[in-house]
């Protein structure tokens, strides 16, 4: 019996990007960042990601991985739960 190779990543044609959720998360990150008086470039440096990637996350153009969410929360000095709750509040507000 021949062993199948395991391919990493999503199957071809599938997507997990949810624009509305990405937008709500980005707005939450931007709100917390500005509330704390942190520049986008500074937050990106603290989180260990590129500034351009942070901009795309804040604009809702990229959906961050779990690892990036943890890095952003750490850079904002808040829990991931608080960050996600803020995103959930933004998502709920956009639905009404």
TrEMBL record:
<dbReference type="GO" id="GO:0003700">
    <property type="term" value="F:DNA-binding transcription factor activity"/>
</dbReference>
<dbReference type="GO" id="GO:0003677">
    <property type="term" value="F:DNA binding"/>
</dbReference>
<keyword id="KW-0238">DNA-binding</keyword>
<dbReference type="GO" id="GO:0005829">
    <property type="term" value="C:cytosol"/>
</dbReference>
<dbReference type="InterPro" id="IPR050807">
    <property type="entry name" value="TransReg_Diox_bact_type"/>
</dbReference>
<keyword id="KW-0804">Transcription</keyword>
<dbReference type="Pfam" id="PF01381">
    <property type="entry name" value="HTH_3"/>
</dbReference>
<dbReference type="InterPro" id="IPR001387">
    <property type="entry name" value="Cro/C1-type_HTH"/>
</dbReference>
<feature type="domain" description="HTH cro/C1-type">
    <location>
        <begin position="29"/>
        <end position="83"/>
    </location>
</feature>
<keyword id="KW-0805">Transcription regulation</keyword>
<dbReference type="InterPro" id="IPR010982">
    <property type="entry name" value="Lambda_DNA-bd_dom_sf"/>
</dbReference>
<protein>
    <submittedName>
        <fullName>Putative transcriptional regulator</fullName>
    </submittedName>
</protein>
